[in-house]
Structures are given as C-alpha cells and as structure tokens.
Amino acid sequence: MAKIRSITPEQIIARMRLENPWWPTNGLFSPQSDLPRRLYFDRFFEMATQITVRRALVLMGPRRVGKTVMLHQLIKRLIEEGAPRRKVCFLSIDAPIYNNQGLEQLFALVRTAAGDDDPEGYTLIFDEIQYLKDWERHLKTMVDFFPNTRIIVSGSAAAALRLKSNESGAGRFTDFMLPPLTFQEYLHLKGLTHLVEDSTIETDAGEPKSIVSTSDFSTLNHHFHEYINYGGYPEVIFNEAIRDDPGRFIRSDIIDKVLLRDLPSLYGIRDVQELNSLFNVIAWNSGNEFNLEGLSQESGVDKVTIRKYLEYLEAAFLIKVLYPVNMNSRRFQRASRFKLFLTNPSMRCALFTPISAGDEQFGQMVETAIVAQYLHWSTFPYPLHYAAWNGGEVDLVAVDKPGKPVWAVEIKWSNQFYQHPGKLKSLLKYAAENKLNSVWTTTIDKQGFRQQAKVDMFFIAAACFCFAVGRTGLLNSGLSRINDRKMDL
Q1: What is the rounded distance in angstroms from the CA atom of residue 141 to the CA atom of residue 104?
Q2: Which of 472, 468, 481, 473 is closest to 214 using CA atoms?
Q3: What angle do CA 113, 116, 121 make, to 5 degrees?
Q4: Which residue(s) pair with 290 in the sheet?
Q5: Sign, Cα dihedral of 35, 39, 40, 45
Q6: What are 176-232's pLDDT values in tens digits?
Q7: pLDDT tens-digit readout, 261-315
Q8: Sign of the CA dihedral 363, 379, 189, 159?
C-alpha cells in the first residue's frame, strides 16, 4: 500500500508566497485591486485601519457582492499609505492546503514565509473564513493573544457568520455587512452618475423640497430597468460572458449554493427541495402580500416549516419580511399576513427570465428594488412597514413608535396618479388619519407637487427615488464621503 503523504509546512509556505505577490519590493498587486471601488470602501477602510479598538473585523455579505475584491483593494491602499509589504498578509481559507490548520498555526507560518517573525504590526486577512471549523473560537483567541495585530476575516455564508459572531465574538468582533449593489452604486460603477442631479420641487407655500432629478428620463429608466434585471452584482456588470448569461451565474453560484449548501449545513435542513420550492414562490411574487395558508398551498411546505424557512432566508440576506400596521399605524397582534421581498431584484431574473418594463409584474419589482435600498442602511432610524386595512393599503410607511408614522410612500410604475392625485384614496386616507402633512408617490417619469385634501403630495420618478434612498442610506450611515445632499423624506 502506498504511503499517505501529508502536506508539509514548506508547501503551505510556498502557497502563502503565491497568494501574497506584493511581499517582495516592487511586487505586484492582485489585478482585482484595480477594479472600480464600491462606495462602501472608504468606510470599510476606516474600520479596517482602526487601531484604538482591539477587535477583529468580520466582513459579511451574500456571495459575489465584491468582498474579495474589496480586500485586495484594502491591501493595495494599506501598502500605498506606508504599511510594510511583508506585514500585510492575505490567505484564502477555502484553499484545500489550509485544511485543518488553525489561525495561530497559519500566522506562525506566515511570519516564516514573510521573513518577519515579530507578530506586532501585521494585518492578517483571512478570506472565506467559514471553511475553518470553529472559526469564531480561533478568531477570539487571536484577538486576545495578538492585540497589536489587525485581523480581518470575510465569508459568504452570511447567516452562519452573523449567528456565530454574535454568539462568540461579543466585544471582540465588529461586523461589516456588504450588501448587493444599490442603484446609486450601479450608476457609479458604470460611470453614469452624471445622469442624476439634485433639484427641488416648488410647493404652494413657496418652500422648495429637495429631490433627485434627471434631464434624461429615458436613459435613466433604461438603466433602472437594467439594474432590476442584472444590476445587483459587480461581476455581472463588468464580465461580458456573465452579462450574456447572468441567470446561470447568479442561480448556480449564488442562489443554489446558499439554498443547497450554506443553509442546510447551518440549520440541518434535510429537504432542500422544499426550501427551494418556497424560495421560487417568493422570488416570482416578490412584493406580494402573503399569509401562511396561501404560501403553504402554493409551495407545498407546511406552515410550521415555512416559519422556520422564512427566518433562515432572511438571516441569509436573501429575503426581507415586512409586517403591516393598521390604519392607526399600530402592529396587528397576530402577524397573520406579511409582504415578502427579495433583497436584490436581479435574483428574480436569474431564476426565471428578464422582466420587461411593460410587464404587469414590473411594478412589484420596482417596489422590490426600492425596499432593497432601505435594507442597505446600516442603521435605519424607523421600523419599515406597509399599512393595510379593509379596503386600503399603503406600500411603505416608516413608524417612529406605535401610532406615529414619520412618512408614507406609494410605489407606482405609472404616471396616471400624477395627473389624477385624488385616485390615491388609500394614501390620502392614511395621511388624514395619521395627520401626515405630506406623502410621496413614485411615477415613471413625472415629478412635481400636488395638493389634495390639504395633504402635500410629492411625485418623483421611481428611478430617482431609488437612487435617492440608496444615497441617503450611505450618507446617514457614515458610509460615504461624497459631498451630496440627501433628499428630504
């Protein structure tokens, strides 16, 4: 029988040197470091370089949103700003050669490979950390033993990372969520932010309202349509081969791996077909109101299991559940109905087919895209709901506390209500009942002010509103240094 060979430390060291080509003087950086930066990069860099707080930084997010690219961009900037080349280390933990190696063992080998045995001053970056068993225990130990070493880890199994970092990393880990692209980021990466501009809407009282506008609605709406179908992932934008077949890329590498591998392994799900069936129903009907009975009938999954699966899918950042408030902006005692949204509208295109702007379901995808922008906010000041009562509904409301809404938005892919604002009876009724002085409604390409029943009604194109919400989220969360005004809401 042939002797079973073990991987030697020398072989691991050789791999480390391959992964860190910048170690030698004038060594090259990864080509990924030169890709356009996401707007989240500045805030991430700020957190990654903070040395006053002894914590590891955990970069989380769905698959293919650009986490590894952001790590390589971090490396390049660190070295450009004076960090010693041999003190910045990147390891991709999913490489089989690192199997069964603890973080402390790897760090010892890193110091040998880099030729600098002093552990202080290193920046250690461990990509795809979820492939290391008990990673959170290893990371906690590293933070305690090497207080002057910056440690950054990333992983795609968002549910597992969030769960375990919360359980084991209290006081030692800081989470940073990198979501799919906002519409603002999509335009930024495409070099199209010139399409939007800050403007105002004049009111009868003479007090202008800040708003995002454009001089070319046709072109902006074209890209908004493209964003809804394809725009959630940077790689889809820049890779022509993927752009020609985004469905296969997103479905196999993002959705299937989460549904068929990440969630089953984390939560012990045995019937992955049930989970897949449920997710397909949600994706096709994103933005719809559901109840457990109807969802069970449509998906073939029993109601008790559906409750668990919804929790899992939300933890994995695949869906968002919104619960209703009544006419008086109070939660129902029993959450018997709810709305379900994809956290990224392009997942629907991946599972099925691209949706046209004239499709009867396109309005739901516009609503999905706008709700998704709010989910990107690291801290949102008010709980999001929709309002529903017998004979009426408002698409999106923010409630400061029970009975006290802050704003209300009706999301439409239509211009008819701009010409006939009185048809928005549910929105006007809700505003009157809750003493809201103003409300918002989206359109296709009409923007302006109307007053109806003493309520100020502001109309804004859906694409402009989507851009504004994403941008405001970045500004309010301190995640962007762009000198922009936020749209009043």
Answers
A1: 8
A2: 468
A3: 120
A4: 338
A5: positive
A6: 888 899 999 999 999 999 999 999 998 877 678 899 999 999 999 999 999 999 998
A7: 888 988 889 899 999 999 999 999 999 999 999 999 999 999 999 999 999 999 8
A8: negative
What type of residue is 211?
Answer: I
For residue 78 the two structure tokens come to: 């660190």
Collect all residues with Cβ–Cβ distance below 8 Å to 163 and sequence separation of at least 6. Answer: 266, 315
Please state, in angstroms and rounded to a whole number, the distance separating the CA atoms of residues 381 and 475.
13
First to last CA, the chain: 73
CA distance 181 to 70: 13
Give the separation between CA 371 and CA 344, rounded to whole angstroms.
9
Residue written as token pair 């001089």 = 215
For 323-377, write each residue's pLDDT tens digit: 999 999 999 877 789 999 999 999 999 899 899 999 999 999 999 999 999 987 7
Asked whether the beta carbons of 152 and 56 are under 8 A apart, the reply is: yes
Gap between the Cα atoms of 329 and 430, Å rounded: 9
Q: Are 299 and 278 in contact (CB under 8 A)?
A: yes
Q: CA torsion angle for 380, 383, 384, 390 (degrees, to 10)?
A: -170
Which of these ranges, 7-11, 105-109, 218-222, 266-270, has the smallest mean pLDDT? Answer: 266-270
Using CA atoms, how far residue 375 sits from 192, 318, 412, in Å, is 23, 11, 19
Query: Beta strand pairing status for 123-127 and 88-92?
Result: parallel
Say how far apart CA 127 and CA 295 lie, in whole Å: 37
Task: Tell me the sheet residues that pair with 449.
Answer: 458
pLDDT in the model for residue 482: 37
Instruction: Read off φ and ψ for residue 269, nearest 5 degrees.
Output: -75, 125
